[in-house]
TrEMBL record:
Essential cofactor(s): pyridoxal 5'-phosphate
Domain Alanine racemase N-terminal: 9-225
UniProt cross-references to SUPFAM superfamilies, sorted A to Z: PLP-binding barrel
UniProt-recorded name of the protein: Alanine racemase
Length: 361
């Protein structure tokens, strides 16, 4: 069985690195754990770091977090589905909201449960996912402030999640100005302007982050150390907190070009023949993981495979095919190949019951 490994020391290193950066800039932050899909062993490793705030987008994951660490502040990071409101109010201390009718229902449920539920109102800043339109912000807040059982603790925005719109200093200044307008008009002090996610970190390092942005929600940077502006790893961070280890279940010298009449494969792909490869062969390995577990484009062969000229050829539902060139390392059936991962690849692996999960001390 393929194994997804989490390296405890690398996770701890990345956490300390980020925590130091945010403390130096007086920024509050929480860890986004939706990547972990509620995997209890991995959640425990995150919580053991001394985390004070956890963000997730699934109620079942929030419940799992509260079970392990009831005192950690939990944040539900998408607008609440109406049918899930009772559980969200019960298990999430904070939720992101954008619909007035939904917030009214949250208010009613909070009163039923004898709680004050905190909310962050998300504002649309151009990426066109969730968010209240800018022209409606003042009237929206006015109505929300009237609701009992609700405490508005922030306003926020998302970037890069749907259309790839990146955060800029100007957009974040605009977000900060919304807070100043709301504070002044309603004589309130909203604690957080939550404009920071992993994609915003480069602006912080480049001294382009407006002072008003005082809250970050971090997932990808913690687990992958990735600078989403450059595609490179931040200096001083690990990009391999998570690693996939796969077993070679077949290894044979085979032609590099298929033979016979070609049609679409089950994934709807059509193979284009490269005539320059006719007559050539390569060591072709089959690995014990497939499309049901991960899209191959999210796999990054480990550096140690360079001399094998490893290339991912493709995958079927439960098998991945790679070429090892001349197989200079002498791999054989039963040996393992390791891959670093991109975020969406790790997400699908964590959601696969066919891939085991293991913490490496």
């Amino acid at each position: 069985m393929a194994v997804l490994k989490l390296y405890r020391d690398k996770l701890k290193h990345n956490y300390k690195y980020l925590d130091k950066v945010f403390k130096e800039h007086n920024i509050d932050w929480g860890i986004v754990t939706k990547l972990l899909c509620g995997e209890e062993a991995f959640l425990k490793e995150v919580l053991a770091l001394g985390v004070r705030e956890i963000h997730d987008s699934r109620v079942t994951n929030i419940k799992a977090i509260k079970k392990v660490a009831p005192d950690v502040q939990t944040v539900y990071i998408k607008p609440s589905p109406k049918k899930s409101i009772p559980e969200i109010v019960k298990y999430a201390d904070v939720s992101f909201e954008t619909e007035l009718d939904t917030i009214r229902m949250v208010s009613e449920e909070a009163l039923r449960q004898g709680k004050v539920h905190k909310i962050i109102i998300m504002i649309e800043m151009g990426d066109l996912r969730e968010g209240v339109m800018g022209d409606d912000v003042v009237s929206f807040y006015e109505k929300v402030f009237e609701l009992p059982g609700i405490s508005v603790v922030g306003l926020g925005a998302n970037f890069n999640c749907l259309h790839g719109v990146m955060p800029t200093r100007d957009k974040l200044i605009q977000l900060s100005l919304y807070k100043q307008i709301i504070d002044a008009k309603f004589n309130k002090v909203i604690p957080w302007v939550s404009g920071g996610t992993s994609v915003t970190i480069p602006l912080l390092f480049n001294h382009q982050l407006p002072q008003g942005i005082n809250h970050f929600r971090i997932g990808e940077a913690l687990f992958f150390g990735l600078n989403l502006f450059t595609g490179e790893t931040f200096d001083g961070m690990h990009n391999d907190v998570l690693e996939l280890e796969t077993e070679i279940i077949e290894l044979t010298v085979k032609p590099m070009v298929p033979s016979g009449m070609l049609a679409e494969n089950p994934s709807g792909e059509s193979y284009e023949l490269d005539e320059s490869l006719y007559g050539k062969t390569s060591h072709r390995a089959i690995l014990d993981v497939g499309l049901l577990d991960i899209n191959p484009k999210f796999l990054i062969p480990e550096d140690g495979h360079e001399k094998e000229k490893l290339s991912v050829i493709g995958a079927s539902s439960d098998m991945l095919v790679v070429e090892l060139g001349e197989n200079q390392s002498g791999y054989k059936v039963g040996d393992t190949l390791r891959f670093k991962l991109r975020y969406m690849g790790a997400l699908s692996l964590l959601n696969s019951r066919y891939v085991s999960k293991e913490v490496i001390a």
